[in-house]
Amino acid sequence: MSVSVLSVDGPILNISRVSRLHMGAYLCIASNGIPPSVSKRILLIVHFPPMIWIQNQLVGAMEGEEMTLECNSEAYPKSINYWTREKGDIIVHGPKYEPELLDNAYKVHMKLTIHFVSPSDFGAYKCVSKNSLGDTDGTIKVYRKFCVSVFLNGRFDVSRINMNIYWYQFITI
To answer: Which InterPro entries match (predicted)?
Structure first.
């Protein structure tokens, strides 16, 4: 793993069109050729409204399973993050739902575990992120996966895999 460091000579560091990608620590080192050099660490903080991205926007589940939905948010100042159902009802921690937030500076990884998926759990879920500069949300749709039973060699084989079923009509000529 290599690290590259941008170095600028002079008393001024000018960052044009600053964005959230510029956030972080900057080190200024002053030297006149006579030891010791003097350094100052400057922390640049950029305020920006929440942004959300979701890797899997369509997720399948079978009844009785446990499943976890995931959503990522970035915002500064720190955002308020929560999950809702499609009608806007906020999801709270309980025996059915387990929301979890993993914070890392201005980034939040949101998880929602659904225990014992039932028919009422299919539909849309929203991860919501709000701060003083704005708000946004992302939607994940949960659909029903079916369990397929196949009669093989005199036994029923219950298969929990996704499969396509094709029907063909054979015509004798």
So the answer is: Ig-like_dom, Ig-like_dom_sf, Ig-like_fold, Ig_sub, Neural/epithelial_adhesion
